[in-house]
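Fill in residues.
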């Protein structure tokens, strides 16, 4: 029976370097004894392929076709390529990933698409473990390396620094950073990078003293409309597009900036404002996933209607410092 050979033919790993064109049907008789062996092992022999030594086996449980040597059929339990792939896809799905491709070089690895859209090459055993933990992002101990790098870069940019590479001493807890203001580079612990608690060994600027700003930005995403971003930055005027990794077709306008005595104060205040907004205006918080690919941020984005609310909050922060300013 050959009417099934439009199905893709799975190849055993060792044969994958053999060109696909070589797996053509061979019009040869199939001995009855082979049929008996195949049935016993859960297959039907669909046809002979490539040369006198190979057959295409149809799996009784999934219907997929896999090429095997007649020798393997006789002497071992031939593996079904379809069942194996289904199992891999199933494991990936349990972990919240999508199987993109098996690794042709190393059968212990495959490439997966992660929920964030990035791809990662992972060991099958690792994936198996993640699958038992349930769908991402609940796994602890696993993060997307690409997203992680972007987040570090963004955090560094907030403080006026840039990640230029891994730690020169090889520690996973440090990165090599360059100071935008003076160009000096030095290693910085990731924990300190998060809080901005580090000074520059080149120009002496310190996290305690460097001025920072809490800002409000309005931006428009084609097809999605307007949004508001509240954040802090060393240099919102010139660095903001870069910090937020805005796509070039996103329109952005800085609409308010409140000076802060230090990055530390700015960070604390920004966090407090987000907490307050989340508590009082949860309906105006936009899930970050909605804007994936347009803007890359780690803190909240708000609907355009939140603008007057946030402006009032910023005014209230600014006012006590200039008590004589007239009310509008
Ligand atoms: Zn199967
Ligand atoms: Zn990612
Ligand atoms: Zn410096």
């Amino acid at each position: 029976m050959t009417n099934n050979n439009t199905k893709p033919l799975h190849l055993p790993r060792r044969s994958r370097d053999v060109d696909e064109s070589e797996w053509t049907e061979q019009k040869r008789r199939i001995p009855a004894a082979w049929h008996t062996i195949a049935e016993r092992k859960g297959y039907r022999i669909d046809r002979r392929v490539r040369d006198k030594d190979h057959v295409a086996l149809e799996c009784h449980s999934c219907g997929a076709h896999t090429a095997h040597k007649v020798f393997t059929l006789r002497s071992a339990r031939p593996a079904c390529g379809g069942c194996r792939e289904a199992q891999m896809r199933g494991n990936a799905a349990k972990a919240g990933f999508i199987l993109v491709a098996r690794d042709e070089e190393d059968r212990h690895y495959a490439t997966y698409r992660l929920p964030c859209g990035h791809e990662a090459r992972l060991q099958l055993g690792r994936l198996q473990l993640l699958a038992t933990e349930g769908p991402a992002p609940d796994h602890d101990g696993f993060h997307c390396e690409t997203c992680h790098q972007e987040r570090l870069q963004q955090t560094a940019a907030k403080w006026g620094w840039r990640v230029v590479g891994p730690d020169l001493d090889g520690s996973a807890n440090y990165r090599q950073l360059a100071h935008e203001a003076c160009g000096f580079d030095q290693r910085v612990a990731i924990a300190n990078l998060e809080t901005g608690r580090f000074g520059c060994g080149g120009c002496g600027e310190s996290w305690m003293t460097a001025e920072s700003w809490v800002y409000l930005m309005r931006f428009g995403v084609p097809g999605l409309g307007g949004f508001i971003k509240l954040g802090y930055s060393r240099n919102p005027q010139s660095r903001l597009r870069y910090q937020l990794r805005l796509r070039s077709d996103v329109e952005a306008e800085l609409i308010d900036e409140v000076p802060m005595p230090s990055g530390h104060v700015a960070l604390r205040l920004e966090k407090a404002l987000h907490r307050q907004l989340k508590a009082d205006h949860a309906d105006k918080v936009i899930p970050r996933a909605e804007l994936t690919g347009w803007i890359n941020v780690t803190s909240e984005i708000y609907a355009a209607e939140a603008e007057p609310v946030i402006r009032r909050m910023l005014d209230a922060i600014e006012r006590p410092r200039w008590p004589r300013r007239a009310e509008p």
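The pocket of zinc ion (ligand 3) is lined by residues 179, 181-182, 184, 200, 202-203, 205 (CB under 6 Å).
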